[in-house]
Amino acid sequence: MSLLDRLNTSNRSRRDRRLLPALTALAIFLSAVAAGAQVQKIRISISSRSNTNTTYYVAQAKGFLKEEGLEVEFIQINPRLGAMAVLNGDVTFTTSFFSTFRGIVQGLPMKTVFVLLKKGMYFLMVRPDVVKDIQDLRGKKLGVASVNGGDHIVARELLRMKGVDPNSVQAIAVGEPTLRAQAVLTNAVQAVAVSPPHDLTLQQMGLKAISGPPEIGVPNSGLFAADRFIKESPQVLRRTIRAMLKANRFIEEHRDETIRIMMGAVQQTPEAAARSYDVELKTLARDGQMTDAELEAQMERLGDKKRPLDEIRDFSHVRQALKELGGR
Description:
Blueprint: H1 3-37, E1 40-46, H2 54-61, H3 64-67, E2 70-76, H4 79-87, E3 93-96, H5 97-105, E4 110-117, E5 120-121, E6 123-126, E7 141-144, H6 150-161, E8 170-173, H7 177-185, E9 191-194, H8 198-204, E10 208-211, E11 217-218, E12 221-226, H9 227-232, H10 234-253, H11 255-265, H12 270-279, H13 292-302, H14 316-325
Parallel strand pairs: 1-2, 1-3, 7-8, 7-9
Antiparallel strand pairs: 3-12, 4-12, 5-11, 6-9, 6-10
């Protein structure tokens, strides 16, 4: 090879090295444009309009879902039906923790893929003219969203902690918080377990909290997906999780704006929204995961048969999403 050929080859090599970063950036940009052009429609089921879903409200209000190329429809579904809706393909994800987690432990082909609230808060509310003390609930009725749902599990533990046998109180499935409020106000049931801001609403109606935070809290919300979806649509799953992680970071850093979004999503006073933010949103799972020990504890709490952890959770996509967001 002549000296001139060697010089030309060397110049091309240096030029290629200089162009490589620009070409890489262009490839990333074109990939993002393509992702944006292919908007993915997904549906997420929630059990009620409450502050426990603030991450989802923020992800939508601040455009984090749109940034990830997602068009999301939130659908309110009874927590006991959420898992079936996922398996039937009616929704992409369900968020109700206990009923879905129980179903997975019992063998449903689904997994926990994201944890939102690791310690959702509940208050046990009563009419003070009917129930003077928690001991008075023996032989009475407890109104719950669904039997063996999250509020029921918490209520049982609140009773047990105060020396009341949970089996001495009859659980009645009533439904969403507004229906539970009506049931306790009319004395159809004598107690209900509700999360913020519904406890303040009931206090304004004359009810009293006889037990509640910070005595106990249990996982309250997350994302659950079918095994088939996890295998076939990992990119959509990861984009969804990235949007939720962005929302969690926003919530931590922007208290006032988060409270405004909460008030727009759930009818409540500024005081109630602020209290929920300060009390409940402190329990956000910043990394979207639970430890193996925490998952084992939940299976123990349910009192059902156990299942290998690899069959009930898949946090690999959360870890990948965290890695992708790490430098932002």
